[in-house]
Amino acid sequence: MAWLYLVVAGLLEVLWAFTMKQSHGFSRLTPSIITLIAMIASFGLLSMAMRTLPLGTAYTIWTGIGAVGAFVVGITVLGEQITPMRIAAAALIVSGLVLMKLSSAD
């Protein structure tokens, strides 16, 4: 169950990063509210996952899902630039996440 909490927490991190961008510095109410709710839920689920998962594994996976997810949302939704270097960087992050998961006993 901890892994499910962790994945959902990571996806919520992507949501709050996107809605934070949409809030324009917290000057727009609806995206600001969504950002704060998603942040609280993401941190709450991360803390639940950390009850059984090692700190380094949980935090690395959470931030990795957020980083790669925000990268994908930036490209697909916001029209951000795709470059070979950015794709390589995302691939390295995903590789690190896989290695972290494989190295975890849980």
UniProtKB/TrEMBL annotation:
Pfam families: Multi_Drug_Res
Presence of the UniProt keyword Transmembrane helix in the record: yes
InterPro entries: EmrE-like, Small_drug/metabolite_transptr, Small_multidrug_res
Keyword Cell membrane in record: yes
Cross-referenced Gene3D superfamilies: 1.10.3730.20
Transmembrane intervals: 33-50, 57-79, 85-102
Name listed for the protein in its UniProt record: Guanidinium exporter
